[in-house]
Write a structure and sequence with these properties.
The complex is a heterodimer of chains A (111) and B (116).
Chain A lengths: L3 E4 L2 E4 L5 E7 L5 E8 L3 E10 L2 E4 L7 E2 L9 E3 L8 E8 L5 E3 L3 E5 L1
Chain B lengths: L1 E5 L3 E5 L4 E3 L1 E5 L3 E8 L5 E7 L5 E3 L5 E5 L4 E6 L8 E9 L9 E2 L3 E6 L1
Parallel strand pairs in B: 2-12
Antiparallel strand pairs in B: 1-4, 3-9, 5-6, 5-10, 7-8, 8-9, 10-11, 10-12
Classes of the chains: A mainly beta (111), B mainly beta (116).
């Protein structure tokens, strides 16, 4: 089954404690993205990747890092989380026909 | 750069009534257009997309959308809604090629609530 997986699904942490949200896809897609969803703002792209070792900033990259060492994995790293990064995060991969597949989401709370 | 505006943040409607969710976009390049649906506590699911060809596209669950290039709109319609259509709907665009392909820009979302 074609899917995008994310872990963890829920995370509560404290300000400044580094964390990583993992993302993996099994469709051999080249393009992958991270989004955050906040009420009234829709989804905003944080980072995206066009292929292994190729990443670019989205609309709201501040405070986030990503890496793409393998095609299937695209982890999101928060080196020093702050309360304004409390949000719902989605990973996605997109095929060349424009179909974007979303993961189930990670709900992050930073205290 | 692209931007997407969903003109209604909330749309209440009665069951079996028709519905239209409005989406306007702006872009300096040609784009692909999408509608996604998000049911409560779930991820996003693709409803339909416009890449090229016929401007009327049909999607899942009886939804359709019409691309209007001159008005830069991509409104979503359903002739008769069900309670199960209650969800949040997002319009999105991405450049159709080049290094920006895959950089989706979303609208703010429209919450559709279907009442019995």
């Amino acid at each position: 089954e074609a899917q995008v997986t994310q872990n963890p699904r829920y995370l509560i942490t404290v300000t400044g404690k580094k964390l990583t949200v993992t993302c993996s896809q099994n469709m051999n897609h080249e393009y992958m993205s991270w989004y955050r969803q906040d009420p009234g703002l829709g989804l905003r792209q944080i980072y995206y990747s066009m292929n292994v070792e190729v990443t670019d900033k989205g609309d709201v990259p501040e405070g986030y890092k990503v890496s793409r060492k393998e095609k299937r994995n695209f982890p999101l790293i928060l080196e020093s989380p702050s309360p304004n990064q409390t949000s719902l995060y989605f990973c996605a991969s997109i095929n060349l026909a424009g179909h974007e597949y979303f993961g189930p989401g990670t709900r992050l709370t930073v205290l | 750069a692209q931007s997407v505006t969903q003109l209604d943040s909330q749309v209440p409607v009665f069951e079996e009534a028709p519905v239209e969710l409005r989406c306007n976009y702006s872009s300096s390049v040609s784009v692909y257009l999408f509608w996604y649906v998000q049911y409560p506590n779930q991820g996003l699911q693709l409803l339909l997309k416009y890449l090229s060809g016929s401007t009327l596209v049909k999607g899942i669950n009886g939804f359709e959308a019409e691309f209007n290039k001159s008005q830069t709109s991509f409104h979503l319609r359903k002739p008769s809604v069900h309670i199960s259509d209650t969800a949040e709907y997002f319009c999105a665009v991405t450049p159709l090629g080049g290094t920006s392909y895959g950089k989706l820009t979303f609208g703010q979302g429209t919450i559709l609530t279907v009442h019995p």
